[in-house]
UniProtKB/TrEMBL annotation:
Keyword Cytoplasm: no
Keywords (A to Z) from UniProt: Cell membrane, Membrane, Signal, Transmembrane, Transmembrane helix
Molecular-function annotations in GO: DNA binding
Name recorded for this polypeptide: 4Fe-4S binding protein
Organism, scientific name: Pontivivens nitratireducens
Amino acid sequence: MIFRKVRYCSAFLLAWVAILVIVLASSTAWAQDARLLEGRASPALVQEFFSDADRFEPSEGTPSYTRVFRGQEQIGYLFSTLDVVRARGYSSRPFDAIIGMDMAGQLTGARVIRHHDPYLRGFPDRVQRLGDFLDAHIEYPVDEATPAPLPPDFVQGTTVSARNMRAGIMDAGRVIMRINDPRPLITEPTLNRLDYGFLDWDQLLEMGAVSDELISFGDIREAFSKAGVTPTDLDIPFERARSDSDRYTELVVALVTPALIGRNVIRASDFGEFVEPAPDDVVMLAVMSGGYYDFLGTQYRSAESDHKFDRLQLVQGDLAIDFFEKDFQRVGQTVQRAGGPMLRNSGLFTIALSSGFDPLAPFEIRYFVQAVDAAGVEHTVQFPVSYQLPEQAVLMPYVEPLPPWAEAWLESGLELGILAAALTVLTLIFVFQQQLARNRQLHRWLRPAFLTFTLVWLGWIAGGQLSIVHIVNYVRGPFDGADLGFYLAEPLIVVISLYVLLSLFLIGRGVFCGWLCPFGALQELTSKIARFVRLPVWNPSQQQQRWMWLPKYGLAAVIIGAAFVAPEALAAVEEVEPFKTAIISAFTRPWPYVTYAVVLLVIGLFTERFFCRFLCPLGGVLALGDRLHVFEFLKRRPECGVGGCHLCELSCPVKAIERSGKIVMAECFQCLDCQVEYHDDHRCPPLAKTRKQRERAAGTSVQKPLVLSPNGATAPADA
């Protein structure tokens, strides 16, 4: 009776803590986290980001950032994620990273100076790897859509924080760039008319900024021959060619409206006089030719032909554009190409966008080569010159990167597949648990095998250890303004949590605690080794055990309460769980943490699952939820407990069966040992008696089974 009152008091205490949490959380001011950049960025850190900086100028307005100067020249920006985007880390609370960025939007450095990730605190190796991870992004543009230099799982054990911190740093950088970009926001692909950088001729060709079509005497001979004209009958100076590969004519075309192309293709003065002043509703096409034939011809001078250039035509899909003298402007200097022949004729054509021409789409210039035969008949062949504006000359609209949670799910396909297969197997185990329990040998091998998988793959390899940390994050998230992405940040934990939540309200806490907890699996497997070498076993009495069950509820209440009333102490109190030491870091933490975890495991060698039963705060939360489970699949008989049989009680490794025979489901780990005994007609007294009667009726010799008595001795089942 007293025990029941204590249990209800524990539940009431937890509910009171939850109410207190809501009140305190609603009054928590975010402003306590926000501090000015001054004082947070040390001189050494600033010097590391900008080695040649000598002056700093704080910005005005919001968000706050600092302009960095070398003399009178601004060389970059210094800012903080906390000031600019308030990006959230693992615990849903904002982290603070100081960032340096140059004027081109490339990172010069990033350092996390404050965070709330329990999987980073106490892990100096992870902190170092996080620094290396961020350093790998130096000179990486914040608006880059290409893969990052290093994947987030480079920081093993805290991938979520690495992913969120990288995203927050990049987001903050993009905000600062947008604030300081005088150009309007780009909403669709647009010509980049302003940006410039020097490019030589080879670089222009390589990037596709110019298209250069060289037409040899051999090409002319072949083209006219295919047209049914004898080339030697034409007024083409074949006699001047030393070989068919010699140049007859050459055509170069380039869209020169983008400064990156125009200022490298035509003379700067021509660009400034003709291209820069041009309105936004036109583009300028540069055409140049050399050799024995040019693109000019003579027809453009004739009014009879409307001053049309008869040797050129622009074609884009179904659109054909002719060129006229009114749209043409000679440029005074031709392009100089190192080691190449001169292009003696050059000019600019103005193309109105109202014509339907799309400068961002591919097009071709048809170059018509004309020749006259001996009879005075003109013949024409054409050579297409294809052109596609290079992406370097196009401003693309900003494409929001995948949110960190979506990136995590895309990268976790293999792990999710393995987990799905494992959960399918576990589901089948519970669906067919009675059939499994009838086969003692199969159960004896299947359970340790699954626990080994849980420990090695789910725990040590995949890091899928559900923890009170996750419960705290889930509970605190709504008060911290966490969005859906926060809850989806860890794909494996999300799937495990949903599976555990469903199974908790269907059949109880044992599905997780008994089968899916890596640390629990480690305890049970080491305990099996202890039983194999016959180490002594100590179990508290039933009355003692009832009191020993209580600390886990108190620890759960303290940890959840601390998350709201003393968040700075949360990391310390969460260390009551040895999961980070034994599972997440595989015993690679400093010696006090390792010693604590090892001590718990050593105690577990003598008292089965000591930590799980008496100290685990996550187990306390799940045990409270267990009281709401719907189905009871563990079978009992009238003879169990009060009927005089205590076989299941004695065989239960965690002593979750009372003397009365009742299973305390809130403390049951669903190991199915009792069900194996339940179905064993050589150990279960009621079944043994029935089998004996059946065998006697059939005239079969009866061998009396041996069973465990309450004092641990063996006795015949019908004694």
